[in-house]
Amino acid sequence: MQQHATHWAVEDMAKTLNVSRSGYYRFCSRQPSCRERANKDLSQKIHQIFLASRETYGSPRIHAELQAEGLCCSRPRVARLMKKVGLTAKMRRLFKTTTTLDQQKTAAPNRLGQDFTATMPNEKWVADITYVRTLEGWLYLAVVLDLFSRKVVGLSMSPSLHTELVLKALEQALQRRQPSNSLQHHSDRGCQYTSEAFQALLAKNNIICSMSGAGNCYDNAVAESFFHSLKTECIYFERYDNRQQAMNSIFEYVEVFYNNQRRHSTLGYLPPVEFEHRYYQQQVLCS
């Protein structure tokens, strides 16, 4: 009736719909209930968090963010309000592998054994390579992640798939973290990781080498999962004119968003940096 009040008389519409005019006027003057006002405010906050997450958060992560800010609400309520306004996290796609096996090199055994848990930082690292399409050509990306916090500790990008790509990623991780001798490094059996130069760098730093079984992506699931997040939350929604543009975008996603802001379900919906910070705080209190 409100929508057609400028075209039809209220009295005629009330008779047609078999409602009272007084009831209609009461409805028009009715103030929103406390619940409606609360839902409106909560929906605005949800939308702000959704945009801040680069439209990547679903209801679980948004609920965790609300809790971290001291707002009390249930996850189903968050999901219901998101559905009402049409907020949907970016969808995932599959991606292809980039490394090839070197049959002449001997791969290390799978010491990790799909055990992706770690009790402290710099206990277990995983590494992998992927590629990004740009209008200038392919850009290859190598990362090293710490299994304890899922933090990206090494990042390297190059227009070629040469061994130097993975060497730079590992060297950056070593420089940043300065790990102890008990560190285990896990990767696939790609020729970059089985190369003499890479194996020499591991040996020089007393790092224990572990490699996935042939053709088994599940043996390096955490690294695969990171590339899923990177591509579906950043790369697939960009159009890179050149490699430098892609490098800037990926660096910003990893160092600004993923490591410092993105809430990880495995970490109790904490960002990697905050998860490590809490660990070190606890160590100080216990010492």
What does this structure look like?
With 287 residues, this protein is α/β, with parallel strands linked by helices. The protein contains eleven helices and five strands; from the N terminus they run αααααβββαβααβααα. It has helices at residues 10-17, 21-29, 34-52, 59-68, 75-85, 164-177, 191-194, 196-204, 221-233, 243-258, 272-286, and strands spanning 124-134, 137-146, 151-158, 184-187, 208-211. The protein has a five-stranded mixed sheet, sandwiched between helices. Strand 2 and strand 3 form a beta hairpin. Helix 3 (34-52) crosses helix 5 (75-85). The N and C termini lie far apart (70 Å). The mean pLDDT is 87.
Note the gap between the termini: 70 Å
Low-confidence stretches: none
Helix content: 40-55%
| Overall outline | elongated
Q: Total number of helical segments? A: 11
Strands ordered across the widest β-sheet: 3-2-1-4-5
- The total count of strands amounts to 5
* SSE string, helices as H and strands as E: HHHHHEEEHEHHEHHH
Give the DSSP E fraction (strand runs of 2 or more residues).
5-15%
- Oligomeric state, counting identical vs distinct chains: single chain
Q: Describe the biggest sheet?
A: 5 strands, mixed
| Mean pLDDT, all residues | 87
Rg: 26 Å
Structural class: alpha/beta
